[in-house]
Design brief:
mainly alpha; 0% strand
Length: 204
Amino acid sequence: MKNLIHNKFLQIDNILLDVLSIKIKNTFFDRLMPKITHWNDYGQIYIITSIILWKDNLTNLLNIFLALTLGLLSGEGFIKYLFKRERPLVTPDNYCFLIKFPNSSSFPSGHTTSSFAVLGVTWYMDLQYKYVILVLAVVISFSRVYLHVHYPSDIIGGILLGFICAMITIKMPECLGMIQSIFSNIAAVLSAYVANYQSLQLFT
């Protein structure tokens, strides 16, 4: 049953991949998509864009850089090794790749994860120019499928992971505040206990 579901899932993935990377293949996209996908090889497009758009707001920049870092560490550093999913099979045999074929695991898409991590932060904080980030995220994610280096489900996984990284980034100050409060309360209780114990020792 498990294999049946997996095979059906993979079949749907391959059908969508065939449509998005082969059926709609054209000269214009062949020239454009490699350039677009390389914009985010190292998150550079979002780093540069963020510095240009929000250079006067350190909090915004820190949140975006933190979201990018979380996406990199969780996706590239952990989940890819956990799933170890192979990249899409080359069909037809004479398919000509327009970029260097990646050696890393396929799931999730790192380009998509970083894109939607940044989008999640800008959207939650309702930053100006958030629609610019939306367009970048969608186009870069599409380029990964068009270039035949990711399955559509890799993109979906990247979107979900990106939004999770964004949520963690946004909620982190609140969580750190709660942790600090808990440790402060524990320290206060221990301090009171020690003081009480020392007082009892004086009377014995």
